[in-house]
Amino acid sequence: MYCPRCKHIVEGIKCPDCKKPTREPREDDVCLLTEKPAALGEMLADVLRQNGIQPLCMGALGAGLSTLLGANIEYLKIYTDYSDRERALELCDELFGGIKGEEAEQAESDAAEGEEGAEA
Ligand SMILES: [Zn+2]
């Protein structure tokens, strides 16, 4: 079921987060796919675009943590149309499923380099 308020797929007839009634998802409903640190989120968005899926990215600051660490910890929420969701989830699994430890750090720095290039 789909919660139009939170824009994500949930179990049951009421959303566990906002307690509003859910409904059957429609093809063009925008659903939350995942939330990732900005560099990984950008990477995922690129992969989705390369596969013909147009993602919607929304930034979210981890307020408490960024104050604590004095660092700019930004998370990206990635949304896709419901009709693209299944494929997007597969791509997400392919991208992040195999990435562990050092590989993840490598991928993260690669994505950061790409970001700098785009800004210049
Ligand atoms: Zn909700």
What labels would you give this structure?
120 residues, alpha+beta, Alpha-Beta Plaits, three-stranded antiparallel β-sheet, two-stranded antiparallel ribbon
Task: Please give a quick description of this structure.
By secondary structure, the chain is an alpha+beta fold.
Provide structural commentary.
The radius of gyration is 16 Å and the shape is globular. The protein contains four helices and five strands. 45% of the residues lie in helices and 22% in strands. A hairpin with a 4-residue loop joins β1 and β2. The protein has one domain: Alpha-Beta Plaits. The protein is an alpha+beta fold and 120 residues long. It has a three-stranded antiparallel beta sheet. Strands 1-2 form a two-stranded antiparallel ribbon. The structure holds zinc ion (ZN). Zinc ion (ZN) binds next to loops.
| DSSP summary, beta strand count | 5
Number of domains: 1
CATH class membership: Alpha Beta
Q: How is the biggest beta sheet arranged?
A: 3 strands, antiparallel
User: Which band does the percent of strand residues land in?
Assistant: 15-25%
Helix/strand/pairing class, anyone?
alpha+beta
The general outline is globular
Oligomerization: single chain
Cα radius of gyration in angstroms = 16 Å
Count up the helices.
4
**Which molecules other than protein and nucleic acid are bound?**
zinc ion
The portion of residues assigned to helices is 40-55%
User: What series of H and E elements makes up the topology?
Assistant: EEEHEHEHH
Strand order of the largest sheet: 3-5-4
Low-confidence stretches: none
The average pLDDT score comes to 81
CATH architecture: 2-Layer Sandwich
CATH topology: Alpha-Beta Plaits
